[in-house]
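Hi R.,

Here's the input for the nicotinamide-adenine-dinucleotide complex you asked about:
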Amino acid sequence: MQSHTERVIPATLIAGDGIGPEIVEATVIVLHALRAPFAWETHKAGMSGVEAFGDPLPQATLDSIRRTRLALKGPLTTPAGSGYRSANVRLREEFHLYANVRPARTLVPGGRYENVDLVLVRENLEGFYIGFEHYIPIDDDPHAVAIGSGINSRAGCRRIAEFAFEYAARNGRKKVTIVHKANILKMLTGLFLETAREVGQRYEGRVQMDERIVDACAMQLVLNPWQFDVIVTTNLFGDILSDEMAGLVGGLGMAPAANIGVDAAIFEAVHGSAPDLAGKGVANPLALLLAAAMMLDHIDRSELAHQLRKAINQTLNEDQVRTGDLGGKASTKEFAQAIVRRL
Ligand code: NAD
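And here is the predicted structure with nicotinamide-adenine-dinucleotide in place:
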């Protein structure tokens, strides 16, 4: 049998757009110092895919992920309005990445909230993200009316609810809160609520079940985030609430995400390509580093994930090395180098 130290794991690496190449480079430097076992296959996606191959999701990138079933990805720019469909959404669909896991934990004490430790499990393939939209022209206005539909399936709701309750049970979490808007979207999110409740009942005695309407949940997260543990919700609500939760622990710079599916797992930061910071060398690589720690957990190298999280904590709180968004002065590279010193 091969020992852990001998085993090399092929993984796809996508630098992405905007600040992507800078934070990916910083993360790869840290993973190298950690002796993480990844053998990177480097590929393009997003606007850099368009520039190189005329496609935000070039075939070579898809083929690589199909082979490795594992990817670390920088943010991809999606031009708003017209043009290309989001390469992120296409990636999730292509590899059936149905669960988006977004933890929000306090890493730097002294912020608005102490000791926040939440995990949001967002359904990643259905709801309003399916892109069933059209305009109805009236008179000379081609966009007089806009219509968008959402789709939730019982199978999709069951799968994400099972993922959330199973995640809670395996990770020693006490409670799963089902977040919905079934008072208004009675069918679309009513089906989600009904199905998630059925799944939750199977975990009785192991994981508590709770539920909230999304607007109340948004407010209660601000008033008292400690009342929540794991939250499971539909695609659009999950997108919004996970950014809110990132805000509770210091902002998007600290929020990692795992997209887990049947055919692959893709790890990334919650934030986007931050065009306002691109090329300046000041972006915070922390969210992507935390995503890399989730990737290490995913390949059963939790001891490396633990080492990485510990070094991050020491760098932030003992060495007081931080990037500008966290009130520090370190550049992206300096922050990565400080973590490497701790490793
Ligand atoms: P954004 O997350 O890129 O930026 C929002 C704000 O947060 C900006 O002020 C930015 O400077 C700041 N910020 C983000 N990441 C940071 C970091 N690592 N360090 C310090 N500050 C950081 O959101 P946006 O401006 O709405 O989107 C820009 C582009 O990114 C869009 O094209 C959008 O579609 C795309 N996007 C991609 C993903 C993804 O690939 N997963 C996610 C969200 C947005």
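One thing worth noting: The mean pLDDT is 94.

Cheers,
M.
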